[in-house]
Amino acid sequence: MIDYLAKLKSRLPCLEIEATDADQDRDEHMASRLEKFQSDKPILVLLGGLHTLKKVKWTVKSGEPFVAEILVNHGFRVSSYPQRWLPERCENGQGRSSRYVNADDPKALTILNESLMSLINAKRHRSTKDVIDGFVVWECNS
């Protein structure tokens, strides 16, 4: 993936690609670091699935916003496309292929609630609006 992204960056000089992680206050730290980049060109940021959520309705007082939500709250335009690996095991040597699921597709809400929201102490969403923009779903090849 790193090799692919390096080639992509060389072909698209307007695209900024950054990797970031932190030990403490991860989301605040990562958001703070990302806010320092130039805002006149797109930035592709690879984050773990939960960090891509632009809105979470926590059921616990200790819940804090993830990177995407922090950036949105600070006025940045964020497009979020988490990946979803379907749990089934692929047959011998059978690879996986990706499929895009737009946030407007009813399947996207199911994926959001059953994959990401089920991992945290938060309310299930009634809509994907303002939460994600779509999913990249990885499935076994037919």
Automatic annotation (TrEMBL):
* Protein origin, superkingdom: Bacteria
Q: Protein name, please?
A: Uncharacterized protein
Lineage in the entry? Bacteria, Pseudomonadati, Pseudomonadota, Gammaproteobacteria, Methylococcales
